Amino acid sequence: MGIKVLVTYGSKYGATAEVAEKIGQVLTEKGLDADVKPADDVGELSGYSAIVVGSAVYYGRWRKPAVKLLKKNEEALAALPVWLFSSGPTGEGDPVEIASGWLTPKALQPVIDHIKPRDVKLFGGMVDVEKLGSLEKTAIKKVEAPLGDFRDWDDIGAWAAGIAEALKQ
Question: What is the CATH number of the domain that holds 163?
């Protein structure tokens, strides 16, 4: 039996889903069996050798489906190799610097500490004004968030390749 990896995510407008798809694609290219699913669609974790969980970040918080998945499966996740990623900050440069060192929501820190992920990664996000509601457009304008796609596909691919390498050892 090969290494089966679940890549699951919480996404609002699809940008984080695309990041998860890229991670799954790279894992598959590296010879692993990867399932990519929205967090809402995840049932049992049995049968998976490792889990990658990610979420879009809004106002310093993960999407509810990803939070529920972490909390509901905390014990199972603590027994597996887990990688976490967030996507959200916009602007040119290092996403961690843009987010002032933020990597994970403070409210999730006890769960994350228990799970002990192998790595936690923050990727740049994307803002497509056409998809935003009026309240979100107002908030974006107020904080003067840069608009556009700031996802670094090379960085995402390299991170996923690192996961594959770690799992093959």
Answer: 3.40.50.360
How buried is residue 169: exposed, middle or buried, by Cβ count under 10 Å (0-12/13-18/19+)? exposed
47 and 76 Cβ atoms separated by less than 8 Å:
no
Number of domains forming the structure of the chain: 1
Give me the residues paired with residue 85 across strands.
54, 121
The pTM is what?
0.93
**What are 74-120's pLDDT values in tens digits?**
999 999 999 999 998 888 999 999 888 889 999 999 999 999 999 99
